[in-house]
Amino acid sequence: MAKPLTLDTIKDLPADIRVPSYARADLSPGIVHIGLGNFHRGHQAWYLHRLMDMGLAHDWAIVGAGVRAADAAQRERLKAQDYLSTLIKLDPNGKSAEITGSMIDFVPVEDDNAALIAQMADPAIRIVALTVTEGGYYQNGAGGFDADHPDIVHDGAHPATPKTAFGAMIAALKRRRDAGHGPFTCQSCDNLQGNGAILRRTVVGLAKLSDPDLADWIDTNCTFPNAMVDCIVPATGPAELTLAREFGVVDMAPVTHENFRQWVIEDKFCAGRPDWDLAGATFTDDVHAFEAMKLRLLNAGHQIIANPGEILNIETISECMAHPTIRAFLRKVSLTESAPHVDAVPGMSAEAYINLIDTRFSNPEIRDTVRRVAFDGTSRHPGFVLPIIRDALAAGAEVDGLALVEALWARMCEGTREDGTEIAPNDPYWNDLQTAAQAAKTNPQAWLDQTRLYGDLGQNAVFAKAFDRWLRAIWAGGATAAMQRYIDA
């Protein structure tokens, strides 16, 4: 019979479940992490947990935090199980389970973020890390800081009672500066090229709206390391809850993950850090090359297959890879149009990485849904796909397949599949996307005229012509025929 997951019951779990070798009483906080979703618990928290298992980093335990209503529900789930998490590795050669205990608390989620500010102001906290999604950094269409967003306007006018995680960080840093406690490292763990630099721009830009002197202090004293993070971690649903019970654990928020992790970090920590490299992370002075490879091949690759998958009513990424046309489409675009704009990294060429992606995406144990991967295209296409197109056009290189990728996204956003079923809203800007996509059925340029997404790229004659041709072909003959035409060319 499965046992509820708590500190009291952990000793009674089945012997084949790996449990922490360290005691909770031996841990003290060093990190506040904002955004306690599956990815953080299956990635960054795991690295720290494995360090703690080695008898190290016991003064770096994680205190969870969040600023959304959903975070309050997550807090209650995790609090009920003493902040322990069940991680289930979905290896085609056999599943395994592990309990992680590197998180020791979760601050109350409040409208004014008072508890979060107080926790981050504690001098014991030396790192504040975030996983708030690619679209959570208040960037405008040009990629700069969006000072006009209502949340930012509010925090600029009310710095002591902020709505955003960034406003809370600034309020905490003000307390630390005024008390002489010094700064903390601000660490982004989201899939963004130059995520540390983007976080710096957001925090410093917001601070300038209310306290330019504090903004200068933050810019001078805090560090914002860039990092590349990688692990496929599906959302948790009934199947994942059942799987945990099959292992003998009643966990209300288990995490499933693939048999691969990577974390490449710029070693810039103003107040110290755990030795994550002893658990398999990589510290380097050149994160950019690792970031570019992952974002342009893996993250862009997800968009290449998820949009046609949704159009064809395919449920999971591994099932997309079982579709011969989608798999061949991904491989040709990646090898011929993306890879030329990706540099090799130590031990890995672009082609070898594409082969690795093929294996990872094809893992049938990972039920990573097409819907999850296709979510928030307004952040993911500008972040992952459009930079490749811009670089290719600047180099006079081929963009035909990448134009087809964008045309497939436009087709998906029309809101119906080829079998006539409805695609439920799947983007924060779904209404705008659907309006543009429906207009683009007869006038493809209407899609590219979304300057918030495409800027001046939509006016590029080479790209616009290819996009026009492909979108018309998709509507005339279907997504599969269009992809096959590209593959055969």
Characterization of the model:
With 489 residues, the chain is an alpha/beta fold. It has 2 domains: 3-284, Rossmann fold, CATH 3.40.50.720; 288-488, N-(1-d-carboxylethyl)-l-norvaline Dehydrogenase, domain 2. The chain is 48% helix and 11% strand. The protein has 21 helices and 13 strands. It has helices at 38-42, 44-53, 69-80, 114-121, 150-157, 165-179, 195-210, 212-221, 238-247, 287-311, 317-321, 324-338, 350-361, 370-374, 377-394, 400-413, 430-440, 445-448, 451-454, 461-477, 479-488, and strands spanning 3-4, 29-34, 61-65, 85-89, 96-100, 103-106, 127-130, 185-188, 227-230, 249-250, 255-257, 262-266, 282-284. Strands 6-3-2-7-8 form a 5-stranded parallel sheet, sandwiched between helices. The radius of gyration is 23 Å and the shape is globular. It comes from Sulfitobacter marinus.
Count of domains:
2
Question: Which fold name fills CATH's third level, the topology of the largest domain?
Answer: Rossmann fold
What's the average pLDDT? 96
- Strand arrangement in the largest pleated sheet: 6-3-2-7-8
Tell me how many strands there are: 13
Shape assignment:
globular
> What would CATH call the class of the largest domain?
Alpha Beta
Task: Return residue spans where pLDDT drops below 50 for at least 5 consecutive residues.
Answer: none
The description of the largest β-sheet is: 5 strands, parallel
Task: Tell me what the CATH architecture of the largest domain is.
Answer: 3-Layer(aba) Sandwich
What would you give as the CATH superfamily of the largest domain? NAD(P)-binding Rossmann-like Domain
Termini Cα gap? 57 Å
Q: Please, how many helices?
A: 21
Specify Rg, calculated over alpha carbons: 23 Å
Q: Name the beta content range.
A: 5-15%
